[in-house]
Amino acid sequence: MNPYHVLGLSPGASEEEVKKAYRKLAMKHHPDRGGNEAEFKKIKEAYEAITSGHAYESAHTDPDFDHFTNLDRKSTRLN
Description:
59% of the residues lie in helices and 0% in strands. It has 5 helices and no strands.
């Protein structure tokens, strides 16, 4: 899982961009608002991975890190 792509971002996204994307997607997919619980969990995990620094480290040091994961773009696109 590429956490940046889950949030619809590139690996160079700023902290503010990450936070904004997370909030928008979390609100859209939150189970209490009629959203998909599995999608919400994936978004939350992606945000936590990025903010903990693990995603940044993987994106820049792991040769097997997939920058172009095939994800369902409809569910992660920021419109």
